[in-house]
Design a protein that fits this description.
This protein has 125 residues and is an alpha/beta fold. Helix content is 19%, strand content 28%.
Length: 125
């Protein structure tokens, strides 16, 4: 199989609405997603970051820039404020050029965010 564009998902929860907490949570999740999927920065086509409306102290994309992703297109968005949804949540969608099938992609849901995808609990931690 040749290289194909794949989606890699993950989520985590920031400790609070501070710049430090948002960047720390985002960096931890990005590092895990990259390690679990054996990504190189040149494999990454783009990354979408979304945060719940209660996180507004920093753009999560700053964490990716701090990790050396200077040429990767990044976009930050707000999640829909659904009543009862997980607070302080940072979600990531990486689009990457991979040589393996979508079903082999490792999605990562850390801490409290693991409850968002109980169907793939084997990939969460």
């Amino acid at each position: 199989m040749g290289t194909q564009l794949r989606g890699i998902r993950g989520a985590t929860v920031a400790a609070d609405n501070s710049r430090e907490a948002i960047l720390s949570a985002t960096s931890d999740l990005l590092q895990r997603l990259i390690a679990e999927n054996k990504l190189q920065i040149q494999d990454i086509a783009s990354i979408f970051f979304s945060v719940t409306p209660d996180l507004d102290a920093e753009f999560p994309a700053v964490a990716a820039r701090q990790m050396g992703m200077e040429t990767v297109p990044l976009l930050c968005l707000n999640e829909i404020p659904v009543r009862g949804s997980l607070p302080r949540c940072v979600r990531i969608l990486i689009h990457a050029n991979l040589t393996w099938a979508q079903k082999e992609v490792r999605h990562v849901y850390l801490g409290e965010a693991a409850r968002l995808r109980p169907d793939i609990v084997g990939y969460a931690s």
